[in-house]
Amino acid sequence: MLNQVRKTIENHSMLVKGDHLLVAVSGGADSVSLLRILVRLADEYRLRLTAAHLNHGLRGAESQREEAFVRRLSTEMGIACICKTVDIGSLRRGKGRSLEEIGREERYLFLDEAAERCGAGKIATGHHRDDQAETVLIHLLRGSGPEGLKGILPIRAGRLIRPLLDVGRAEILEFLRREGVPYMTDSSNLSPVFLRNRIRAGLIPELTANYNPRLVAGLCHTAGIIRGEDDYLQGVVRRIIDGWEIAPNAAEAIVPVAALRGLHEALQGRIIKLLLEAAVPSKNGIGYRHIEAVLALSRKLDGRCRSLDLPFGIRVEREGGLLRIRKEGDRRARGRERKTSQPLFEYGVEIPATIHLKEIDKTIHLELIGKPTLREMKEEPRKAFMDYERMSPPLILRSAAPGERIDLFGSGGKKKLKEYFIDRKIPRPLRKQIPLLVDSQSVIWIAGERISERVRVTKQTKRVLKAEMV
User: Fold this and answer.
1) I need a surface site. Which of 28, 241, 342, 409 has the fewest CB within 10 A?
2) Which of 113, 135, 93 is nearest to 411 (CA)?
3) Predicted model pTM
4) What span, in angstroms and rounded, lies between the C-alpha atoms of 392 and 394?
């Protein structure tokens, strides 16, 4: 197994002598074996090692035992250990995403922070051959393209490495048995709630027993082939974009429609995907339907000026023979929107109030009440309950203005109203018909939708403003 790991390291140039390596250690067999192997190879590569453990706060005492185990193991191996605890359950609320997605995002954020804190130039994770096969199957079931089917990369972003990617789970367990190294078992890995667990425990054994005894090796081989071809095509795409003189971080990308449509469809989709992802900080969240919508816009033959609003504040415009893809941060574009956009309605508010918004034929009722119970608030989801004493009068009911943001309750940060409306799939013509309650600081209620984190009801709340749109 050590020889295979050496071969993987050399094949992908993962390490150079003298590297300071941050090792992600959950306490499970995979990460513990990774740590042990790197300790064994430390003198050979003159490595400096630091362990890192993220406590997800999901399994109570079990999570605490895992953290204590990783600390103890690191001490026994003479390695410094950085630990952090996060509440994944709380972070998930209001985001509409799975625990797996939030957990993965927080894990990599922590590893980046820990590497910077200790001065590590590279980060090692314990992904292995079985993980690779599971990942390829997951993406295949979801209908992914080459980006998903190339699976787990041996090296990501030049610093995140996977030295165990060519060894399997059985080899890892045998290695730990021979070395006499203990490890923890994560009970959540046995839960059928998670798709990966069902694939690991059910689908892969079924396919291996009845269809292909070398299934795992076959899936990993396929991932390698697709990875090579995808890398080549990505290089072709970058050369085309460079030829159009589109800078990598430009606020606006201008694409010649005729040149785009003259390319093979596979290249068209890749080009649009790359340009859209350039406008997304995390590089994630751009899907097939977004790419197809932009390509459909490029195929319009009537010559009319058309536009498309996508998630993450991305604006795509077709103007004659050009396709413009710009980030929401473009000052000139914001200025144009402000000049051409006027509020549809605006009303001053004195509590209590019942205000009829004649422009949209809606009525807003606002009154002060005693503090309701959590059950009462849940039973009336279309009504908003807000901490009145945390508001900064004067209060105003009006339509949305360009560039406004709201610190949505439960979302973990400020969000542009435009992005919220896009995420909610609210058509552009209808957005100005949604009333906003604002105070002197910001938007505090999107009528019939959400409230601001700033005015949420807490244990300290004394007076509550109840708001309802009828």
Assistant:
1) 342
2) 93
3) 0.64
4) 6
